[in-house]
Design brief:
By secondary structure, the protein is mainly beta. The protein has a single domain, classed as TolB, C-terminal domain (Neuraminidase), CATH 2.120.10. The protein has 3 helices and 24 strands. The strands form 5 sheets. The protein has an 8-stranded mixed beta sheet, with no helix packed on it. Strands 2-3-4-5 form a 4-stranded antiparallel beta sheet.
């Protein structure tokens, strides 16, 4: 199954912004350092009363609710509908609890990545035709709570994470005329830029994307930067943000609330030909989805916050690593759609 440049299906595990996340037991580390895959077995399925296509990065809260952008038939008819897609909150039993629409803030906004805290607060990044970049916060009911314009223009925010201090990390590429260049910034709670982050690896990816190297250009396009587009951002239990560049080995910047890169992690793929596409933490650990290029099949690798391997997971269902889901006690829960675009929540446990 091909992965379109604008429709990214990536694995999500439970966000750990709040201390309540510590209720989720951590996986025990293999003291021998073995990375032999542990298989996942399908144990439960709940049908979700939605029909359409999963779009973008999924997020979760501490209760195991999954948040995902969902393209239905009505949104598909809209001009640039993919940028207006609402976020759906789906409970573990498959019921839809709330809908969050960034267009309530601005009808002409282009909505991008969103972040969900452990206690269920939802924030979405978006940009306007005039180049303004905003972070929109929603109430539990799905209604608009606030909108914040950032002190920076001319970048497209593909990834967002929120620190416990109220500061935000946003990462993307600069404007449409130079979208090979990565941009990463930490902004305070009032939208002021604390620090811009531009690492040597970012400059290298810019040069290689501009040169047209296939591994650095998103599939089906001749623009952008694949390491940024297909990456991800999350908040770790240590209070730092973890920004993934979609590379092989995986490259993760560990970024403090002050905008300092405190360390970089380079994590080998569990098998040849796999590229990192998603990362989320769970109580002192990171679960990283490694996928085959242009596909949603692959494996999940769990490491500690220093990048030391803990466990690797595979499944008989080859779609599993590339689907939005949660890292839960004893296994994973994923959202999956069938050939008729019916949506299901499926739980996988360790075999």
């Amino acid at each position: 199954m091909k992965l379109g440049a604008m429709v990214l299906l990536v694995t999500c595990v439970v966000s750990t912004m709040s201390r309540a996340q510590n209720k989720t037991p951590a996986l025990a580390s293999d003291s021998s350092g073995s990375e032999a895959p542990r298989n996942l077995r399908l144990t439960a399925t709940a049908k979700v009363p939605l029909v359409g296509t999963l779009v973008g990065n999924g997020r979760c809260d501490d209760a195991g609710d999954i948040y995902v952008r969902f393209m239905d038939a009505e949104m598909n008819k809209m001009h640039h509908g993919i940028t207006k897609i609402p976020i759906k909150k789906i409970r573990p039993d498959g019921s839809v609890a709330a809908t969050f629409r960034i267009t309530e803030a601005f009808p002409d906004v282009s909505g991008k990545d969103f972040f969900v805290s452990g206690d269920g607060r939802v924030y979405q990044a978006g940009f306007m035709p005039d180049g303004g970049v905003y972070v929109v916060e929603f109430a539990d009911s799905g209604s608009l709570k606030s909108k914040l314009r950032l002190d920076s223009t001319g970048f497209i925010p593909y990834h967002i994470a929120r620190f416990e201090s109220g500061a935000f990390l946003l990462s993307g590429t600069t404007g449409l005329t130079n979208d090979h260049r990565p941009f990463t910034g930490v902004f305070d709670a009032n939208g002021r830029l604390i620090k811009e982050i531009y690492e040597p690896e970012d400059e290298d990816s810019r040069r290689r994307a501009e040169a047209g190297e296939l591994d650095f250009i998103p599939e089906g396009t001749n623009s952008g930067n694949a390491l940024v587009w297909h990456g991800a951002a999350a908040l770790g239990s240590d209070g730092n943000a973890y920004l993934l560049r979609a590379a092989s080995p995986a490259l993760v910047y560990v970024i403090s609330p002050n905008g300092d890169v405190v360390r970089k992690l380079r994590i080998d793929p569990p098998d040849a030909g796999l590229v990192a596409r998603g990362v989320k933490p769970s109580r002192g650990q990171l679960a990283i989805s490694f996928l085959h290029r242009g596909m949603i099949s692959g494996m999940i690798k769990v490491v500690d916050l220093k990048g030391t391997p803990v466990a690797t997971f595979s499944s008989d269902n080859l779609r599993v690593p590339g689907l939005p889901g949660c890292f839960v006690s004893g296994g994973f829960a994923f959202l999956d759609d069938d050939i008729d675009h019916n949506l299901y929540l499926r739980k996988f446990e360790l075999r």
